[in-house]
Specification:
Largest sheet: none
Radius of gyration: 23 Å
Strand content: under 5%
Number of strands: 0
Amino acid sequence: MSPGQLMWRRFKRDRTGVISACVVIFFFVIALLAPLISKVYGKDPYTLYGQNSLTLLNEFNMPSASFGGASGSFWFGIEPNLGRDVFTQLLYGMRTSIFTALGATLVVVILGVLIGLVGGYFGGVVDYWLGRFTDLLLGFPSQLFMLASMPVITAAFVKPDENTPVWLRAAAIIAVTGVLGWMGLARLIRAATLTLREREFVEAARISGASPWRIIRKELLPNLWSPILVQATLQLPSNILSVAFLSFVGVGFVEPTPDWGRMFANGAQYIEQDPWYMLYPGVAMVIFVVAFNLLGDSVRDAFDPKSGR
């Protein structure tokens, strides 16, 4: 039986891991199908329904119905002040947050694996300077650097009298989050590479005349999929929180782009009058992040041959 089959067999016996995987898959499917669900539902996250109908909002621009205006027409109610549909905002916000965090995680994995492999295999001066560069980035206060760099990045590509395109904001968030998040993975891969490069199969490939890049690609990388996969599953929920944080403080996604962090920022203004608006994205984010963290733990246990689970 191959290592992959053993891992899958162990994972299937872990009930927590299977349930967490189902929850995560459900969120990804909902995010992918958000436009289709919105079309069937008959609402979108941009139309100001509360402004078009005088009965949906009261004189204080709060939802006039109970539970944040929830009804058969608006399943999760409507947004205070503007009166947009909360359900479709949640769907599209999920789509924005998850896929932006997925892009940032991909950048983290590529940079972390590449730098860790190169430093661990070549050693010497290469490893020394890559290690010092990693230490330098670890010294940066990441959240403060995100806050400072996001406006600079967007201003460098957009004229002052123009609005920043959504794709540019997404690319900037992915770049900043990815560049500031790869260091832990790089150190892990470097440590594993230092151990693997002394193994017999690597030495045999070196003696046979294989180039360093072929050894890295053919001999080292296939033996590092376990820590890479585990760290990726643990990195994604962390990046989702980072994306939400940037939007919450106003330097990530902005109006009218639906996003979990922006929903938190808007909901914080009306938390006393309408706590329901913040409840839905809060519950959704907690469920997704907890499920993904549990999934990462289960994947790590499934790859660990000493685990008893």
